[in-house]
Specification:
By secondary structure, the protein is an all-alpha fold. It has helices spanning about 10-25, 30-40, 45-50, 55-75, 80-100, 100-110, 115-120, 125-145, 155-170, 175-190. The chain is about 70% helix and about 0% strand. Helix 2 packs across helix 3 (about 45-50) and helix 8 crosses helix 9. The protein starts with 9 loop residues before the first helix and ends in a 12-residue tail after the last helix.
C-alpha cells in the first residue's frame, strides 16, 4: 500500500495503483477495493472518483493508450516517407501493444462482446487514439500528394486499427511477413501513386 502524496490527483493515484495491481495479480483478481488500498485511498473515495470498476479500467486503458500514442508520435518522426511511416510505424505500434500485457488484459476485460469488437468499435476509444497519433501525418501526406485525396483521416485510422487487430490475432506472422503484407495490400489502397512507394530497409 502506498501512502498519499501531495500534488497527485486521486484519479492518477488510482490509475497508477491499478497498473501495479493488474501487473502483480492479474485483472480477474483486481477489484476496486484492492486498487484503493494500493493507492492509499478509501473505497468510497475510489468510487466517488470513477463510479464503477469498468470506469476505472477505462481510465487505465486511456492512460496506457495515450502513453503509447505519445511514444508513437515521437518514433514516427524517424521516417522519411509516409509509406515507411505507415508500414514500419504500424509494425512498431503492434510490437508495443503486444508487450504491454496490462493494456491487453484491460482491453479484453472491457470488450464484453469480444476483444476485436472493442478495438474496432467506431464509438470506442481505440480508433480515436490511432487518429490522434496519425492526424498530422495524414494531413501532410495528403498535401504532398502521397495520399489519395478521397480517403478521410477517420477512414485511414479505422483501416490502420483494423490492420493492427488482424496482426494482433494472427501471431503466426513474423515481423518481416507483416511488413511485406502491409506493403503489398495496405499501401496500394491508400497511396495516390502506389508505384512510387519508397521503402527503408526493414
Amino acid at each position: 500500500m502506498r501512502t498519499k502524496s501531495d500534488g497527485i490527483s486521486n484519479e492518477t493515484r488510482l490509475i497508477e495503483a491499478a497498473l501495479r495491481c493488474i501487473a502483480n495479480n492479474g485483472i480477474s483478481k483486481t477489484f476496486v477495493e484492492d486498487i484503493a488500498q494500493e493507492a492509499g485511498l478509501s473505497r468510497p473515495t475510489a468510487y466517488r472518483t470513477f463510479g464503477t470498476r469498468k470506469a476505472l479500467l477505462e481510465g487505465v486503458a486511456a492512460h496506457c493508450a495515450n502513453r503509447m500514442k505519445d511514444t508513437m508520435r515521437k518514433r514516427l518522426t524517424r521516417y522519411k516517407s509516409f509509406s515507411d511511416a505507415v508500414v514500419l510505424g504500424s509494425t512498431e505500434a503492434l510490437d508495443m501493444a503486444r508487450k504491454d500485457k496490462v493494456l491487453i488484459l484491460v482491453f479484453e476485460a472491457l470488450g464484453d462482446s469480444g476483444l476485436e469488437r472493442y478495438l474496432l468499435d467506431p464509438k470506442g476509444p481505440v480508433i480515436g487514439y490511432t487518429l490522434n497519433a496519425w492526424n498530422d501525418w495524414f494531413d501532410d501526406a495528403r498535401k504532398s500528394g502521397e495520399l489519395r485525396p478521397d480517403v478521410s483521416n477517420d477512414e485511414l485510422a479505422t483501416l490502420l486499427t483494423a490492420g493492427n487487430v488482424f496482426f494482433l490475432l494472427r501471431t503466426d506472422f513474423s515481423k518481416s511477413e507483416q511488413i511485406a503484407f502491409l506493403r503489398k495490400f495496405l499501401l496500394p489502397s491508400i497511396l495516390a501513386r502506389p508505384d512510387l512507394q519508397q521503402g527503408q530497409s526493414d
